[in-house]
């Protein structure tokens, strides 16, 4: 019996050793893929060069024993590099569709020995390992409610992108003031931000404890945000009919009045929920009233809200957005000129006011309340009067971004 069973026992032991070798080889190959993907993603996070990043990943895979080819092929259209048994792709993230990621697929041929006795098993078998490393962005510092971008991330921090003048009374609840250049207060009054004051340059005239000068520059947080940029892409300066509300009461809706060349409001205007495209200027005159809930107004021209107008505009929430309205966004525009919001005690704007190339000025009274949501982003911001901004914007789906340059992270997600 011993003689009969000995070959079977030896063969079983040999098969166990071979299967264990397969498992060990698979683990080693997976580690090589993990290291390569992480290295490629880290390189791309630093340099934003797809070919160099995928090449870095392939180099690390080779260093860890994966066979490369005699030449590498690179497809700029597909953002794919192939090198022998190594394939590296630049893809979108798995956890965050807006993120970039590096996907590495590696293969290795293993010679079979004892397993060849089984039908269908050839002289070799191929094992495969695949990994995706995703690049994340961690906002640094608190959320701003007031962001002055200036000329963007250009390294120039001289001058003042945010200024406060006269007898100002500015309160930011639960958020910060952010300028890519300097911040200056002239005259009396107070400027208070719960989460601090951050400037790429200097801060003058504000004696706050939580102030941060020479704090770098941050990019426009919405420059790649599809809902906003897709709406802006619909703008066509001068297209559509001009809309004028001289007196009495008028109502607009996205279906009949969704596209206009300009708005001039002197009477009372009610806006139905939805998105409004204004391919020109918006003027809300003295004595006018404009109200709307769940609205987004996208414009190419200047905006002028008179101090004797009554304005009550609220952006759509993520739960009730309809008619093309963008959750959280009440105003968005491409104007490089003046955007004037001269409020009074009844002015209430809820949501994001987004004019990244415009010169936004607040005067009079503009109030979100300490429990409300009002954030503003512009090239320059000037405040003369009372402005209360707050960041209770969870239900509106606005983006989270920090007051300091963001930190990029790399994580293996598959």
Topology:
Layout: H1 2-47, H2 50-63, E1 73-75, E2 80-83, E3 86-92, E4 100-111, E5 124-140, E6 144-148, E7 160-164, E8 168-173, E9 176-179, E10 182-185, E11 189-193, E12 197-199, E13 203-204, E14 211-212, H3 226-232, E15 241-245, E16 249-252, H4 254-257, E17 259-265, E18 268-271, E19 274-278, E20 282-284, E21 289-293, E22 295-299, E23 303-305, E24 310-314, E25 329-333, E26 338-342, E27 348-367, E28 373-391, E29 404-412
Parallel strand pairs: 6-9, 6-28, 7-10, 7-28, 8-11, 8-28, 9-12, 10-13, 12-14, 15-17, 16-18, 17-19, 17-20, 18-21, 19-22, 20-23, 21-24, 22-25, 23-26, 24-27, 25-27, 26-27, 27-28
Antiparallel strand pairs: 1-2, 2-3, 3-4, 4-5, 5-29
Textual characterization of the structure:
It contains 4 helices and 29 strands. The longest helix has 46 residues, at 2-47. The chain starts with a helix and ends with a strand. The chain has helices at 2-47, 50-63, 226-232, 254-257, and strands spanning 73-75, 80-83, 86-92, 100-111, 124-140, 144-148, 160-164, 168-173, 176-179, 182-185, 189-193, 197-199, 203-204, 211-212, 241-245, 249-252, 259-265, 268-271, 274-278, 282-284, 289-293, 295-299, 303-305, 310-314, 329-333, 338-342, 348-367, 373-391, 404-412. It folds into 2 domains: 15-138, no CATH class; 141-405, no CATH class. The protein is α/β, with parallel strands linked by helices and 414 residues long. 17% of the residues lie in helices and 44% in strands. Helix 1 (2-47) runs antiparallel to helix 2. The strands form 2 sheets. An 8-stranded parallel barrel has the order 17-19-22-25-27-26-23-20. The model has no long low-confidence stretch (mean pLDDT 89). The protein is elongated.
């Amino acid at each position: 019996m011993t003689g009969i069973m000995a070959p079977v026992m030896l063969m079983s032991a040999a098969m166990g050793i071979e299967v264990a070798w397969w498992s060990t080889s698979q683990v080693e190959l997976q580690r090589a893929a993990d290291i390569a993907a992480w290295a490629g993603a880290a390189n791309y996070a630093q340099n934003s060069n797809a070919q160099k990043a995928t090449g870095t990943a392939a180099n690390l895979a080779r260093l860890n024993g994966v066979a490369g080819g005699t030449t590498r092929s690179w497809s700029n259209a597909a953002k794919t590099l192939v090198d022998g048994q190594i394939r590296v792709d630049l893809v979108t993230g798995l956890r965050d569709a807006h993120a970039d990621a590096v996907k590495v697929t590696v293969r290795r041929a293993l010679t079979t020995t004892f397993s060849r006795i089984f039908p269908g098993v050839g002289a070799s078998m191929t094992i495969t390992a695949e990994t995706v490393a995703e690049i994340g962005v961690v906002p640094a510092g608190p959320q701003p409610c007031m962001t002055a971008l200036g000329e963007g991330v250009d390294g120039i921090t001289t001058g003042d992108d945010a200024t406060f003048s006269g007898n100002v009374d500015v309160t930011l609840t639960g958020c910060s003031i952010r300028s890519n250049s300097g911040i200056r207060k002239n005259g009396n009054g107070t400027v208070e931000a719960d989460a601090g004051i951050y400037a790429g340059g200097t801060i003058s005239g504000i004696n706050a404890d939580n102030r941060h000068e020479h704090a770098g520059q941050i990019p426009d947080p919405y420059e790649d945000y599809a809902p906003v940029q897709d709406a802006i892409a619909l703008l066509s300066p001068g297209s559509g009919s001009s809309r004028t509300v001289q007196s009495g009461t008028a109502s607009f809706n996205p279906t009949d009045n969704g596209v206009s060349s300009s708005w001039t409001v002197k009477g009372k205007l009610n806006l139905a929920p939805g998105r409004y495209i204004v391919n020109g200027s918006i003027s809300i005159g003295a004595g006018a009233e404009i109200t709307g809930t769940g609205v987004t107004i996208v414009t190419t021209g200047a905006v002028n809200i008179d101090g004797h107008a009554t304005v009550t505009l609220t952006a759509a929430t993520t739960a009730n957005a309809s008619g093309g309205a963008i959750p959280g966004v009440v105003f968005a525009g491409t104007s490089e000129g003046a955007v004037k919001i001269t409020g009074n005690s009844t002015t209430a704007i809820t949501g994001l006011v987004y004019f990244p190339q415009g010169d936004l000025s607040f005067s009079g009274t503009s109030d979100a309340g300490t429990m409300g949501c009002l954030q503003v982003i512009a090239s320059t911001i000037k405040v003369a009067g009372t402005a209360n901004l707050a960041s209770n914007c969870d239900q509106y789906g606005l983006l989270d971004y920090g007051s300091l340059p963001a930190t990029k992270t790399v994580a293996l997600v598959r």
